[in-house]
């Protein structure tokens, strides 16, 4: 029996909760978060700074959220109020959980995952997420004023940029090298010297290698192996988990993912509904972990779409109940599945990132 490890934001929900919190609470907070997120992408993917992992954006923005009035209660209330499930998610989650052990592994803050569990009935003890307690910290008026000034400075900066082939800071323009240096000063020099800076060492976002560790921890609960894992993710925070599962010959899928997740995954799925995840889960329980390769061999291509794609699921024993929601989809929303390789990866990234922005909105879809 396989098990499902799935990210939350992207494969289950439309939200980027941290982005939305910043946008709602910090002046020009959407632009602020986008700039910090781009810095996060640079540190994790280009510089590969020791001790830093994708998703640490979520701790970097916390002092600024507190400076603008964030509390545990406000985060919980905001998360419940703004939660948006992807089409099909409320039906998919219980269906898959009835087929196999299922775990959500999310970089998102725990108050947001608590809202997801409350709405869907998903068990909280099968969730990995970023723990935090804002109410244990005190923020002086002086620190609050300085954080507000720094947030305004970050908003006034251009977005970091680097060429596709960049491998280190020397590959960035002088202007962008200066931007990195200034962000380094803010987040690793000035804020750590504040009392509120303790947050940066206390909070440990579940992203990057922490997601891979969560996969391994979930296997201790089920007694299964990495080769029996179906992992579904969509962003830079999922790269290590996707690679871990792919290298162990499990099923590693990017779902409406960005270029980071597609490069790390074996499979890329593009669809307007999470019902396709349920269909894949049923396929694996019916036919074993080799079923994805068998599906493509059945269709004799490295990408599958349309009615013939769904009929192939039926021929391999997937019940119509898992496929009916997918047959209702048309155009851009219809499911497509790609076996990622060097000849198609550019087109897959383009297709997937377009769907990502279409489903989640342009501002969220452009985040790493």
Alpha-carbon Rg, integer:
21 Å
- Order of neighbouring strands in the sheet with most strands: 3-2-1-4-5-6-8-7
Number of strands: 8
CATH superfamily of the largest domain: HAD superfamily/HAD-like
Helix content: 40-55%
Helix and strand succession?
Answer: EHHHHHHEHEHHHHEHEHEHHEHHEHH
If you average the pLDDT, what whole number results?
A: 94
Examine the secondary-structure arrangement and name the CATH architecture of the largest domain: 3-Layer(aba) Sandwich
Commentary on this structure:
The protein is α/β, with parallel strands linked by helices. It has two domains: 3-13 and 84-129 and 207-365, HAD superfamily/HAD-like (Rossmann fold), CATH 3.40.50; 27-67 and 133-202, AF1437-like domain fold (Orthogonal Bundle). The chain has helices at residues 17-25, 29-47, 57-60, 62-67, 72-82, 89-99, 110-120, 141-155, 174-190, 199-202, 209-222, 239-247, 259-264, 275-287, 291-299, 306-315, 320-327, 345-360, 362-365; strands at 3-6, 102-109, 127-130, 229-233, 251-255, 267-270, 303-305, 336-339. Strands 3-2-1-4-5-6-8-7 form an eight-stranded mixed beta sheet, sandwiched between helices. Helix 1 (17-25) crosses helix 2 (29-47). It starts with a strand and ends with a helix. The model has no long low-confidence stretch (mean pLDDT 94).
């Amino acid at each position: 029996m396989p098990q499902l490890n799935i990210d939350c934001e992207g494969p289950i929900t439309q939200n980027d909760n941290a982005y939305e919190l910043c946008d709602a609470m910090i002046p020009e907070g959407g632009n602020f978060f986008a700039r910090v997120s781009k810095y996060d992408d640079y540190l994790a993917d280009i510089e590969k700074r020791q001790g830093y992992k994708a998703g640490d954006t979520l701790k970097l923005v916390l002092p600024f959220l507190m400076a603008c009035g964030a509390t545990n209660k406000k985060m919980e209330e905001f998360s419940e109020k703004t939660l948006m499930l992807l089409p099909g998610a409320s039906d998919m989650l219980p269906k898959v959980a009835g087929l196999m052990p299922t775990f959500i592994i999310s970089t998102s803050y725990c108050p947001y995952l608590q809202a997801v569990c409350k709405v869907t009935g998903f068990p909280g003890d099968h969730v990995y997420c970023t723990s935090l307690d804002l109410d244990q910290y005190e923020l002086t008026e002086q620190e609050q004023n300085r954080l507000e000034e720094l947030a305004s400075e970050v908003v006034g900066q251009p977005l970091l940029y680097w060429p596709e082939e960049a491998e280190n800071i020397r590959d960035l323009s002088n202007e962008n090298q200066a931007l990195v240096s200034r962000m380094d000063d803010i987040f690793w020099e000035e804020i750590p010297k504040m009392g509120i800076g303790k947050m940066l060492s206390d909070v440990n976002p579940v992203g990057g290698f922490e997601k891979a560790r969560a996969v391994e921890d979930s296997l201790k609960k089920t007694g299964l192996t990495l080769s029996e894992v179906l992992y579904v993710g969509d962003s830079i925070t999922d790269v290590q988990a996707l690679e871990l599962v792919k290298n162990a010959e499990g099923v590693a899928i990017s779902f409406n993912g960005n270029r980071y997740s597609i490069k790390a995954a074996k499979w890329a799925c593009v669809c307007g509904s999470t019902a396709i995840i349920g269909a894949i889960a049923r396929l694996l329980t019916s036919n074993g972990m080799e079923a994805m390769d068998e599906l493509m061999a059945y269709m004799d291509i490295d990408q599958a779409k349309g009615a013939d794609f769904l009929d192939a699921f039926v021929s391999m024993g997937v019940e119509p109940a898992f496929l009916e929601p997918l047959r209702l989809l048309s155009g851009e929303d219809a499911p497509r599945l790609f076996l990622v390789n060097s000849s198609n990866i550019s087109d897959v990234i383009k297709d997937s990132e377009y769907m990502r922005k279409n489903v989640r909105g342009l501002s969220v879809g452009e985040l790493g």
